[in-house]
Every structure is written in structure tokens, then in C-alpha cells.
Amino acid sequence: SQKIEQNSEALNIQEGKTATLTCNYTNYSPAYLQWYRQDPGRGPVFLLLIRENEKEKRKERLKVTFDTTLKQSLFHITASQPADSATYLCALGGRASGGSYIPTFGRGTSLIVHP
Amino acid sequence: EAGVTQSPTHLIKTRGQQATLRCSPISGHTSVYWYQQALGLGLQFLLWYDEGEERNRGNFPPRFSGRQFPNYSSELNVNALELEDSALYLCASSLVIRTDTQYFGPGTRLTVL
Questions:
Q1: Which residues of B touch A89 (CB under 8 A)?
Q2: Would you call the peptide bond into B8 cis, given omega within 30 degrees of 0 as the criterion?
Q3: Which residue of B has its CA nearest to A34?
Q4: B6-55 pLDDT tens trace
Q5: Which of A73, A98, B41, B81 has a 20 to 30 A CA-CA distance from B14?
Q6: Is B107 within 8 Å of A41 when comparing Cβ atoms?
Q7: B49: domain range?
């Protein structure tokens, strides 16, 4: 069955450092991968989308890589700030088994940026 | 432009009761999705509506149902509530399912006592 893995342990880093979050998947051939930010008790907020034929995408301090051979995406936040503290979700969409096009979400990784 | 709105913000029910949650998508969006996010778990897909029709359904029992109205707003109904139904219920909307981003509402926190 499809599986998306994100590190369940919180990532603690110092302000100004680069945070790197990992999303691994199995039994899936996604057409795209997305990263969302979710604050406690709130709905996820879309950050970036990267397609299967793209290796890297950037937006301001954010960078996403997508390696379909390794079945892995890395999400980087450079010059991290305490305001970046949140849970980050990865979601895969596209050619899922059974023909469904509903994105499948990982459980998310909590990022804590210390001042 | 207004985002996705959901009501109520919080809902407290007792076991066996029914709950009705509402969602208004972003103007122009025809697809509405419902997700359940129980404490410590990822988003679990419940239902997808587009143009008034149910397009897909997640692995949930039939007591979870819904509908989409002609104005594309949507309603999620949960019958015969159980304690484990306590969760944050999120609604999202999008323009085109395959490539567009889902825009999420703030959620409805359902507590079943």
C-alpha cells in the first residue's frame, strides 16, 4: 500500500540555520508533490508544488527537491526564524493506485526554531 | 478575495448524535474536499465533491456522508457519533484536481463526549 514517511520527531534548530525536512514515499508514482505548513488547530497552508519532471523549486527562503529515483523530497528553509516554527506536511498527488487523484498527506514533521 | 470558510468553529456532541459541518469554497472553485485529522495523525481523506457530485470517497464508514450544493458549498454529516470521531475536520477547495493547490479552511473541531 502507499506509504508516506515524514520524521515523527520534532526538528529543533537555532535561528538563522537551515532547516531540512524529509519526505519519503513507497508504492506511489506521484505526478507532483506538495509541501504545506500547519499551525496548531489551523488548516494547512500551501507552500510549494513540484512536479515529477522537476528536480528543484525555490520560493524566497524555501527550497524543495524531488528525487523520483530515491522516492524522496527534501524541504529546506534557509535563515530560519522562530516564526517558521510549525508542522510541515508533505502531500503526493497524481497517478495513485486505483486511479484516484486525491492527494495523500504525510503526518508531518514539527519544526521548532529557537531564538 | 475570501478564503475557504467553515462553520461552526467548534462543535460538541454526545455519542449517538448527528453532527453537521459546513464549508464554503473560494469563489470560482468547484471542487470541495473533506478531511479528518485526529490528534497526532495525518490528514485522512473523507470525501471529494465536484460540480455537485461525489467523485471519490475515503476509507470511512457510510455514516460519514455529505453533499455539495449548486453554489458549490458543502455539508458533511456524521451520524451515530462515536468517541473516536473527535477530530479537526478540514475542508479544502480547488479549481482543477490534478494540478491546482488545495486551499484549506480553518477547520471545525468536533468533540464527542
A1: 42-43
A2: yes
A3: B101
A4: 999 999 999 999 999 999 999 989 889 999 999 878 899 999 998 899 98
A5: B41
A6: yes
A7: 5-95
